[in-house]
Design goal:
Layout: H1 14-26, E1 33-34, H2 36-40, H3 50-62, E2 66-71, E3 74-79, H4 82-89, H5 93-105, E4 110-111, H6 112-119, H7 123-135, E5 139-142, E6 152-155, H8 162-165, E7 170-171, E8 174-175, H9 177-195, H10 218-236
């Protein structure tokens, strides 16, 4: 529900202010990152109360609706959709950690070795988390064009970028030789067709524009009609 920008929250409870803060942030682009000043500029926290703002952000982070980040060594937050927050609640601590790194990788995906290095999890634990997340269709394994033998993961609902897939000449990370061959043949035909030399017409063969004929008078028109009829009669006989 859209909030009235001029709404007054001075008499609202902390829970109401927290909910209003989340609703206002969620109405903005999902990629936006908020620092303390950004949150105060939303005009929801009464009197720019720092303590109240901290209480709201901590509660939203604990509920999974805010994700705590760091920008220039300062705390900032990004909104998490309620659907995504519900996913986190259904995950174990290790699964949530693995999922968060895969989510951050976006459409580029993340290599399993880098994932293990960032998460600090034992290989067995990480493999169990990946298997569980794949079974729930939260993540998926993809093949990259540059490194097809690497196990790379991304969120289930995302499509990898062309840099990852290799573009239209690759299928599942493998070069499509048949498609490349067909395109090469068509390209060759097109170039040959456009490059074929045609001898220009000589000046004598070029048609000169005809001068417009004057409109005949009535007598001239009748005379031409009679000539045409006479010729037709002679042909019939």
């Amino acid at each position: 529900m859209a909030l009235d920008p001029s709404a007054d929250f001075s008499n609202s409870t902390p829970t109401e202010i927290k909910n209003a803060l989340y609703a206002r942030c969620a109405s903005l682009p999902a990629t936006k990152v908020f620092d303390q000043k950004d949150l105060f500029d939303l005009n929801i926290i009464p009197d720019n109360d720092t303590k109240l703002l901290m209480t709201c952000t901590q509660t939203l982070t604990r509920e999974g609706l805010f994700k705590l980040l760091s920008r220039e060594n300062r705390a900032c937050w990004r909104v998490v959709s309620k659907e995504a927050a519900q996913k986190y609640k259904s995950l174990s601590t290790e699964e949530a950690l693995v999922y968060s790194y895969i989510e951050t990788a976006g459409r580029e995906g993340i290599w399993s070795r880098i994932l293990r290095s960032k998460s600090g999890l034992h290989m067995t634990v990480m493999q169990r988390c990946l298997k569980s997340l794949e079974g729930k269709e939260y993540i998926k394994q993809i093949k990259t064009a540059k490194f097809p033998n690497r196990k790379t993961y991304m969120l289930f609902g995302l499509q990898p970028t062309e840099d990852v897939t290799g573009g239209p000449f690759y299928t599942d990370g493998v070069l499509d030789d048949e498609f490349v061959t067909i395109m090469a043949r068509w390209t060759e035909r097109y170039i040959v067709g456009k490059s074929w030399y045609q001898q220009p017409l000589s000046r004598s063969r070029m048609k000169k524009p005809q001068k417009p004929q004057p409109t005949p008078t009535r007598k001239q028109a009748e005379a031409r009609r009679n000539e045409a009829l006479d010729g037709a009669t002679l042909n019939d006989s």
